[in-house]
Amino acid sequence: MRRTKRAVDAIGAVDEPSYFFDTELPGFFLRVMPTGARAWGFQYRAGSGRAAPKKRISIAAAGKVTPEQARTIARGLAADVTKGLDPAGEKARKAAEMDVTALVDLYEAEGCFVQRGVRQGEPMKAITKAYTVARLRHHVIPLLGRKKINDVGAGDVERFVRDVTAGRSAKDEKIGPRKRIIVRGGEGAARKVVRDLSAVFSFAVRRGIVGTNPCERAAVRTTDNRRERFLTVEEIGRLGKALGELEGEGVNPKAVNIARLWALTGCRRNEIAGLRWSEVDAERGLLVLDDTKTGKSVRPLSAPALAVLSTVPREGSSPFVFPATSGDGHFQGVKKVWPKAIEKAKLPGVTPHVLRHTVGGLATSSGEAQALTGALLGHANHRSTAIYAHVSRDPAKEAADRVAGAIADALANRKKLKT
């Protein structure tokens, strides 16, 4: 009979799975289970002729849609079958298709390579990979993880960026004694993680897993487009005073010396925090860094930076200039001291990387040649690479002394330059 609400309500209990077909729309049925569960579905032949196999596809639970709503869906499925499509087969294919979580797993295992620059094609540095995968797992998987990869469109990416910006993936979770996972959203996090997500889909395109990268079609902002932050000489003086006060208050001197060396060398955060004694060539005034963001790198080491290093004692057999208080790694405590320093100095939002920009900015504003500035910072472009092979270390060393000397004066509150 025609399946209506009244007809459905009149069906009593059954002893085995039973199918009640509609007389108006061939193939449209209500399935009733011995448990009492009821669901709408559609039956059809996958192919032409009576020999074609019968297939059934579920539409929805009877309580979720009305008989007429289910009938409308069934008519759509019937139209698809008429066109030669196989709705049940397509549904099974989608169910077996990789979701975003599985793609992130595959990317972590096989796809974490540098996409551009002089190290293009090389594996990511361990710390870069760790941060990248963490962003994917903390933002992408909670918001998009269950979605099939071929179903992710530009609109989904745009919605994802809005959700991360609004903090919908943020969390503060305790995972052990004195250990927490703190995930923050915001515009900066959204810009970073959408770049990560784009790299994941580009990897999938190269593997032939998907046809296109939805991030490339999405109207989202992937670059900061903002002026880099630099410290003035007066601000460097405030930072130096704050570091001195913290030292007087008894904070670990390793943290203070690491911060001072960030300011004096322009090195990246972990290039100093994880510095090894084998990388310090005090006799020639060089840092010979074995493994940086751009590979092996040689940097001129200024007299003020050497003076700081000369006060650091070697601790037992540790290879690190700043070894951890316990364990075999390098010191990590500067993460707790730095926020106190910038709070005392009234420099909100300033990060250790700002000190690197400051060295570069002071170098160029003081008239140092671009190649020498590149040598100070360890840039991997052709000019700064060439200087290592063709220019004497003396000019680069002298440039380092001039720039770091000005910063050292400011850190010690000896004002010799105008702001």
Structural class: alpha+beta
Q: What's the overall average pLDDT, rounded?
A: 83
CATH topology name of the largest domain: hpI Integrase, Chain A
| Rg calc | 32 Å
Please provide the count of β strands.
9
Name the shape in a single word.
elongated
Structure description:
With 419 residues, the chain is an alpha+beta fold. The protein folds into 3 domains: 5-94, Integrase, DNA-binding domain (Double Stranded RNA Binding Domain, 2-Layer Sandwich), CATH 3.30.160.390; 100-217, DNA polymerase, domain 1 (Orthogonal Bundle), CATH 1.10.150; 233-411, Intergrase catalytic core (hpI Integrase, Chain A, Orthogonal Bundle), CATH 1.10.443.10. 48% of the residues lie in helices and 12% in strands. It has helices spanning 5-9, 67-82, 87-96, 100-110, 126-144, 154-165, 187-206, 214-217, 233-248, 253-265, 269-273, 303-310, 334-344, 352-365, 370-377, 382-390, 393-411, and strands spanning 18-21, 28-32, 38-45, 54-61, 171-176, 179-183, 280-281, 286-292, 295-300. The strands form 3 sheets. The chain has a 4-stranded antiparallel beta sheet with strand order 1-2-3-4. A 3-stranded antiparallel beta sheet has the order 7-8-9. Strands 5-6 form a two-stranded antiparallel sheet. Helix 5 (126-144) packs across helix 6 and helix 9 (233-248) runs antiparallel to helix 10 (253-265). The chain is elongated and about 95 Å long. It starts with a helix and ends in an 8-residue tail after the last helix. The model is unreliable at 382-393 (pLDDT under 50).
